[in-house]
Structure formats: C-alpha cells, structure tokens
Amino acid sequence: MERALERVIEHLSRARSVLFVTGAGISAESGIPTYRGIGGLYDGKTTEGGVPIEVALSGSMFRRRPELTWKHLHEIERACRGATFNRAHEVLALFEGCFEHCWVLTQNVDGFHKAAGSKNVIDIHGDIHDLRCTRCAFTERVADYANLQPCPSCPNCGAVVRPDVVLFEELLPPTKVALMERVFARGFDLVFSIGTSSLFPYINGPMLEAVARQRPTVEINPGRTQLSDVVDVRLQMGAVAACEALWAARARWKRG
Fold this sequence. Notes:
This protein is α/β, with parallel strands linked by helices.
C-alpha cells in the first residue's frame, strides 16, 4: 500500500489538471446509507408498497403517484439528516487550489462537496436540498425535509414540488451535460475514481478515456469494480483514509 500511495503522489506532483469522480463511497463515511447494499435502507427487500425502490423513485412513478415517491424521498432524507461532509470532501476542496484545472464530478445528491468548499463541482444527479415546482418557475433550497408536507405543493401555483434530482428513468439535465462536455473537452493529466462502482457510461467514461490517452488513473475503493483491472494505481481503502494520506504526503513534498 505504501508503494501505491507513493505512485499516486508522483502522479499528483506532475499533474496540472485533475478530475475526481466520486460516488456513494465517499459519503458513506459520513453516515449516509445507500438504499441498496449491505446495511442499505432497502437491502434485499422491496419497499413497503411491494415495489422495487428503483420503481418507487422513478420519473414515471412520480408522474402517476407523486405521494409514493415522496414517501421514500422522506425516508431517505430522514435517514441522512444531520450528516455532513467528511475529511475526504475537505481534502478534495483543498486540492482545488493546488492545480490549474481541478474538478469534481459526483453522482451524489447530498451536496457535501460544495458544503466542504469545492467550487468546481458537477453534481450530475442534482442536489436533494434543491426543490422546484413541476409547473412554474418556483424554486427553494431547504436544509432538510422536516417541515415539508408529505407531498409538498408549490406556494405559487399549487402544483406538486419535487427535489431537483434525477430520478430513475429520467434523462440527465442538459445544462449539466453541456458543462461536463466543456470541462472534459480539454482533458485531464490525472483522473481519480473515488467510492463509485462506475456503472454509468458518463461516470466511467472519463477514466476510460484517460486510460486510452495513457494518462495516469487512480481508483480509491475498498472493493473491486469494473475499473479495478484497468487503472494504473488502485488504493484498496476507504476514501477518508486515502485522502488524508494523500494530503499529508503532498504537503511534505510541496514543502520540500
């Protein structure tokens, strides 16, 4: 592991542009449960209504029965309430000031990267704290859902309000896709995958493109993923421990 860390430090010392692609694993150490997986809210079972959680949290279900989708959104938000960003999020925010071009692409909807201080963030799936009306231009940002109705309505027009997140079956927001394309067009000297199984093409794409261009790549994940066999360096550890080690090591070589 020490040798792997040293190799990552070598890559960081030569890089002028860095991309961090993050998933649920980086927020798991903040106490954020996944809805599937070991210890997840819906691990190995369907929802109370007898449908898979992916169906309950789908765009088509929200259009048909918004109250059912909201029921599970409330459950997930309540399970995460009170959690905040961790040291891994903080370190990525610190790295932003160390390179000419440094961005975070995250699948997470918890908003922790921005809360930790990162400014160059593409939260491709949205932020659960941002609400918008399904009919008019009303938007609102909330700290939590404690004071929301079971199925909230717009104070302006009375239509159903929803979180500004990508539900299952829905397309990615065009504005964020355009931003992602602009940011990625120039390429990166170094690409990290942190705490994600990298299942979606737009998540594993930057890593695979870096591999094709023979740019260094790093995976930080305690488990194996479909990218584990193609990356240059694999740190089989949690996000907090890995980011702490990288930041401490970088501070040492920077002083030298």
